[in-house]
Amino acid sequence: MLELRPVQTQVQQLKMTTELRQAISLLQYSTQELAEYIREISLENPLIELNEPKPDVPMTYSDPIRAAVPDLSEFARQKEAGLEEVLLQQVRLLSLTEDQMERVTTLIFYLDPDGYFREDFQELSHDLGCSLEAIEEALTLIQELEPAGVGARNLQECLTLQYKRLHPHDQLAQQLIMHHLEEIASRDLEALAERYDMTEETIEEILACIQTLNPKPGLLYETEAPVYIRADVVVEATGEGYEVRLVEDLLPTIHYNSQYQHLFSDREALHFLKPKYKEMLWLKKSIEQRQSTLLKISKTIMDQQVLFLAKGPHYIAPLTLKEIAEILGIHESTVSRTVRNKYIQTPQGVFELKHFFSSRIHTSAQTDLSSTSVKKMLQEMVEQEDKKNPLSDQGIVQNLKRTFGIEISRRTVAKYRQVMKIPSSSKRKQ
């Protein structure tokens, strides 16, 4: 007979506390966003006293409080309205496992400004240590978010996702968009109507609907206002190599406001001030941790990019988030969050930190190049080509192999060209 009795078990569980969520947010903030966040917290916490950095350019304000600080709030708000932030806000509302959340967040990181996902599934599966099915599931979740069409892998899929939202039961029209977009664009309506036993009027209606769709949904969140980039990290050449340091002159310094010290002896005041004191300590500790993590990751990235620092963008080494995470013994998602919205000033110019992450391309010389370097070579080939007889994708493939020993497929060249917004050879011909 089965005996039922109470049994005590000990289970270790990670609980996402408010403090942990806030610490993760601080990790993702740019230096400008972090400065604004610190100011917001200080307005609600009387124990926090800020020493503001001196603005680079004198500013005049009618408000005496704002007059003491450089106004960076507009820049922070523009960042918050970006595609990544819009998608992440929606993802936070989904009921996902921790692994699903990590994968979806990472894939959002890889979307291009148009809202497309153009990365290789095999490479990502290897980098993230998960199955192809898990990557597919994460991308499907992104494709269900707003704006419709985001997360598509090509134009056909982008338009199909949008059309499906408008007409979910029109399977035939979705098939036409997915497989016969070129015929529709060239208005070969008679052949399509005959093939699918439809009238030309029906094809015209589908075409009219397609023309209302957005081929670049990500640009809906691109602001036209100028965004002034301030580097979060600086790399400088020294006699012994390169020095990596943080740019901290934009951050206000947090101090304890001692004028409220006498109120700690009052029980009622203590009830209010005690959590404020803990908040101040937590904020200082979290900022120190954020700065330490950003510096470590930036140094490690630059350690892998010494040739780039010396010779330029052609020499960017292949590098993945996973490799940096393994070197530092931290989670890959920590690297992803830390490099998000961060810029680094180098002897070769200012770059986004995530610019240095790219897949490996093998060459006949048994050396690896980064996909970023190959894209740079492709761009220069197009700039130097004969405009009366521009290079086809296959011609670029042959040039890369003959000149640099790089072996990539025509499909990969086409993908790189689309990402870089380089038209096809027929459209480049003059």
What does this structure look like?
- The chain folds into four domains: 30-58 and 68-143, no CATH class; 155-221; 233-356, no CATH class; 360-428, Arc Repressor Mutant, subunit A (Orthogonal Bundle).
- The protein is α+β, with helices and mostly antiparallel strands and 430 residues long.
- It starts with 17 loop residues before the first helix and ends with a helix.
- The radius of gyration is 26 Å and the shape is globular.
- It contains 20 helices and eight strands.
- The strands form three sheets. It has a four-stranded mixed β-sheet with strand order 3-2-5-6. It has a two-stranded antiparallel ribbon with strand order 1-4.
- It has helices at residues 18-28, 31-44, 73-80, 83-91, 98-109, 121-128, 132-143, 155-166, 171-179, 181-185, 189-195, 200-210, 267-303, 306-311, 321-328, 332-339, 371-384, 393-404, 410-419, 425-428; strands spanning 48-51, 233-238, 241-246, 253-256, 343-346, 349-352, 360-362, 368-370.
- The longest helix has 37 residues, at 267-303.
- The model is unreliable at 11-16 and 56-80 (pLDDT under 50).
